[in-house]
Each structure stands twice: as structure tokens, then as C-alpha cells.
Design a protein that fits this description.
Blueprint lengths: L2 H13 L3 H14 L4 H17 L4 H14 L4 H19 L5 H27 L4 H8 L4 H13 L3 H12 L1
Helix pairs in contact: 1-2, 2-3, 2-4, 3-4, 3-5, 6-8
Length: 171
């Protein structure tokens, strides 16, 4: 096979989403890097990353990874480098980018849950919660204040004492 055809074949294998393409590429790169362990490390890392990026199932990733590990054997010192790189890559993959809108929505959800919890505790302990107390709690945008109110709602002796905690905060 001439070099142009081989180059096209390599590109097709690299770009394919078929799991068998990883097997073929691992075989090709193992042969190509027979006397170059650093290059084999590079290709083994590249193929391992590709497993994560292709969206394969966890089971498929593990099976293909076992094959890669079996075929693309590295010297001990490079095997340690490989393990460190893969662990680092896995950590990066777990920490996906969260947009500012997602972050704000999450924060608002946390605030709303805390507001509801304070009101629910007050209702459970004291029955009807006066509307002005509900309005103040519903308007709080500071999580630390809500956490303080949460603790107060659990420990305070009466709804009137809770109202005093609110009044003290507002002054």
C-alpha cells in the first residue's frame, strides 16, 4: 500500500466512531512505535482520550482500554507517566464547564430550598406562620442569613422570638 493510501486509511480510522477503529488504530500504532516507547506513550494516551471523547458506554471504554493496555505495552517508567496522565484527564472530564446561567440557576435553587425549609420548620413547630415573616424569608438572597434563620427556626421557643430575630437582623 502506498503512503498516500495508508495516510487516508489512518485518517478514516482516527475519525471513525466505530469502536473497532480504536482496535485497528491500536494495532497500527503498536507496530509503528515498536522501537519508540515515547511515541507509543503518546499514541496510547491519544487513543485512551478518544475512548472518553467518543461517548462510548463505561463498559465499552473498559473493554477497549483493557485491549489498549494489553497491546500497547509500555516500559515501567512510561507506564507510571501514562497512569498519571489518564488520572489527570479523568479529573478534568469530571469537572465540565458550567455556564453562568447554570450556576445562577443552581444558586437560586439552593436559596429557594433553604427558604422553603425555614418556613416549613416554622410551620411544623408553630402552626401558622404570619405573612410578614414568610415575605421576609422569601426575599432573602443571602445563603448565610438563611442558614442562620434555619438554625433559629429549629432552636427558637416561639414564632414571636423568631420575629424578633428577623427584626434584629433588619436593624
Amino acid at each position: 500500500m502506498n503512503s498516500e493510501k495508508l495516510s487516508v486509511s489512518n485518517r478514516m480510522v482516527r475519525e471513525s466512531t466505530n469502536p473497532f477503529s480504536v482496535v485497528v488504530m491500536a494495532h497500527l500504532k503498536t507496530k509503528a512505535t515498536h522501537r519508540n516507547p515515547e511515541s507509543r506513550l503518546h499514541w496510547k494516551l491519544s487513543l485512551t482520550r478518544r475512548l472518553f471523547e467518543r461517548g462510548y458506554s463505561r463498559e465499552d471504554i473498559l473493554g477497549l482500554f483493557r485491549f489498549l493496555d494489553w497491546v500497547m505495552v509500555l516500559p515501567k517508567e512510561l507506564a507510571h507517566s501514562f497512569i498519571q496522565e489518564v488520572r489527570s484527564y479523568e479529573e478534568v472530564q469530571k469537572m465540565r464547564y458550567v455556564t453562568s446561567i447554570e450556576r445562577l440557576a443552581k444558586e437560586e435553587g439552593i436559596l429557594e430550598t433553604n427558604r422553603e425549609n425555614v418556613i416549613k420548620i416554622l410551620q411544623t413547630r408553630f402552626g401558622v406562620v404570619p405573612e410578614p415573616v414568610v415575605e421576609v424569608i422569601s426575599g432573602i438572597e443571602d445563603l448565610s442569613v438563611l442558614q442562620t434563620f434555619f438554625t433559629s427556626a429549629i432552636t427558637i421557643g416561639s414564632i414571636e422570638e423568631f420575629q424578633q430575630v428577623i427584626n434584629d437582623r433588619e436593624s
